[in-house]
Amino acid sequence: MLKGSKVGLRARHEDDIPILQAELYGDVVYQSRADDGPWRPITSGSGDAPYVVDDTEVRHAPFSVVELDGGTLIGVASLWDIDNHNRSAHIGIGLLPSSRGKGYGTDVVAVLCHYGFVVRGLHRLQIETLSDNVAMLTAAERNGFVREGVLRSNAWVMGEFLDEVLLGLLVQDWKPDSTG
Ligand SMILES: CC(C)(COP(=O)(O)OP(=O)(O)OC[C@H]1O[C@@H](n2cnc3c(N)ncnc32)[C@H](O)[C@@H]1OP(=O)(O)O)[C@@H](O)C(=O)NCCC(=O)NCCS
């Protein structure tokens, strides 16, 4: 398990999946904001079921996020589109509703930076998030990510096009203890 100051990032367990499907995938607004495709009902247990991990997908490192104190499941986090030639990857995070706004997200970004830069030897990490997602923007910026651009009207979300912000962090600018 990878450890931050508040959270642990571990492999997905079988009994995480129904909780994640109900609390994250079952929330149509959350899922519409998080995904770049349309929400649709998916039968649990089907091959397309969300949060089931395909361990053969080497460009994706999916974690379940737990509280360090007690081990309660609080969400998911991943490095995705890991590119070992350009040594870059993207960060994705989704916390269960009851675990948001408690400082966990900032700590998850810190742990993912450690995983990307130290464990995987990457050079650049990237985050794309909706421009109104203040919590994600702040969690990223508190870890040293800088805004590199706005992708105007890049996301169709619940009946409207929304802007996305692209943030990046290079390994030489990363300060492991920057979250304070
Ligand atoms: C985005 C997310 C990962 C952030 O994690 P979090 O644990 O809620 O955020 P934190 O508690 O670490 O807060 C980060 C900062 O944002 C601020 N913040 C938190 N929630 C906020 C909100 N709803 N509105 C405005 N600011 C907020 C906090 O005050 C904190 O700033 P500070 O460090 O200066 O005090 C989490 O809210 C989440 O999973 N949301 C739903 C899924 C999502 O949006 N994922 C990102 C897709 S790219």
Question: Describe it for me?
Answer:
With 180 residues, the protein is α+β, with helices and mostly antiparallel strands. It has a domain at 2-123: Gcn5-related N-acetyltransferase (GNAT) (Aminopeptidase). The chain has helices spanning 17-25, 28-34, 104-119, 134-142; strands at 2-3, 7-10, 61-67, 73-83, 88-95, 124-130, 146-157, 160-170. The protein has an eight-stranded mixed β-sheet with strand order 1-2-3-4-5-6-8-7. Helix 3 crosses helix 4. The longest helix has 16 residues, at 104-119. The mean pLDDT is 95.
Keywords:
Acyl_CoA_acyltransferase, GNAT family N-acetyltransferase, binds coenzyme A, Ribosomal_N-acetyltransferase, about 180 residues, 4 helices, eight-stranded mixed beta sheet, GNAT_dom
In short:
This protein has a domain at 2-123: Gcn5-related N-acetyltransferase (GNAT) (Aminopeptidase, 3-Layer(aba) Sandwich).
Bound molecules: coenzyme A
- CATH uppermost class of the domain at 2-123: Alpha Beta
Proportion of residues in extended strands: 25-35%
Low-confidence stretches: none
Strand order of the largest sheet: 1-2-3-4-5-6-8-7
Task: Estimate the global geometry from the Cα principal axes.
Answer: globular
Number of continuous helical runs: 4
In this structure, how is the largest beta sheet organized?
Answer: 8 strands, mixed
Protein name: GNAT family N-acetyltransferase
Pfam family, one: Acetyltransf_3
InterPro entries: Acyl_CoA_acyltransferase (IPR016181), GNAT_dom (IPR000182), Ribosomal_N-acetyltransferase (IPR051908)
Domain N-acetyltransferase: 7-163
